[in-house]
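Revision sheet: structure tokens.
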Amino acid sequence: MKDISVSIAATGVIQVANVATGILAARLLLPEGRGELAEIMLWAGLLAEFGSLGLYDALLYRAATGAANPRSLFAAVSALSLTLSLILVAVAWVVLPIAFGAQQGELIYTAQVYTTVYLPAYFGALLLGGLFQGQLDMVTWNVVRCLVPLGYLASIAVLWATIGPMVGGFAAANVAAHLLAVAVGIALVIRAGWFSIAPQLAVMRGLFAYGIRVYVGDVLQALRLRLDQATVALWLSSSELGFYVVALTIANAPQIVSSTIAYVAFPKISQAGSEGARREVFGRYLRLSLAASVAIALALLVLVPWAIPLLFGAAFAPAVPICAVLLVGLVPYTLKLMYMQALKAWDHPLAVSRAEIAGLVLAAIALLALVPTYGLIGAATALVIAQLFTAFAMGYLFHSRSGAPVLAMLIPGPSDVALALDLVKGLRR
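Predicted:
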């Protein structure tokens, strides 16, 4: 219970920092500048997802199941991530001018420089945290993952005080935050005695073999989650992208709670011995995440009409109805994320890929049909439709392959009350 209590407490810190940086970016850069910053980060993020090769999930699975020791895993993922970063940086300098189209050359150059430094820093921060997560050292994992949003917020303050608000300054602050997480993560790895620069081919091959099986599903999930932003960036103006990103800042905020519960659940489900034990562990975390997402979505639907203009400024009032539509997708997103973890823990990663492919196709069709006519509302609606479909598809695949009864997974019992009480006690401590 301590693991999830610490993780949710860290999630609260992360979410406060994310909202604070979102508010600063919106107020200081205004809609057009906020849209340009979002576009820079969008294409870099997509390149990172496309080049990840499922290493994060592979690292968690190999660590949680004891397939390799932490020292071997550190050396292997370091070698793989550095190699991937070099390849992706070369791709970025070719692809980014095409993605930005007729945008100003200075903005394209800023995006290229940002991506060059961001990619290795992102992989480093992600995989160093994942190494501790896979060993079920949740305290250290949460320390590393908190450093990025907190470092970003602190870096923004420093840059704002020295050179003033600029799109390039915000991008540099984000990179600095990831580099901070990498530096601290390496120091913690050295202290734990896991540091090594001698990767073993067998360990690398094992990571690659598992990672490539979940890679398609991970990439498709990331692409479908970013496809709406990419469509807005290509089809509409930078200011409209700024409105959309602000709406996403609020609507996506609760997703970190679902993600935290899912990330804690995955190694615990994988470690559970019997089929019945795995079902029990998964069911408890599924119900917990579902209850949390429903409560948060309902609360935010009431708050957003006045919260967005108050926090981000009156210039972002057009983001209110977009945010309301996006919040409808929180519950299916939570269900989909939990079923994804379950399918991977039951060693059915290809089922995740099938569901994600279907969801991506549906999202693309919905975006093409709705964005030209309905603009930002159409983009938000398309995203919700895709979330609903994918959640249903993954749920069906999980229950049909595992034989787990649907009602037993979704209906709470006495153990859930105990779990909730333990969680509250843990947060109070």
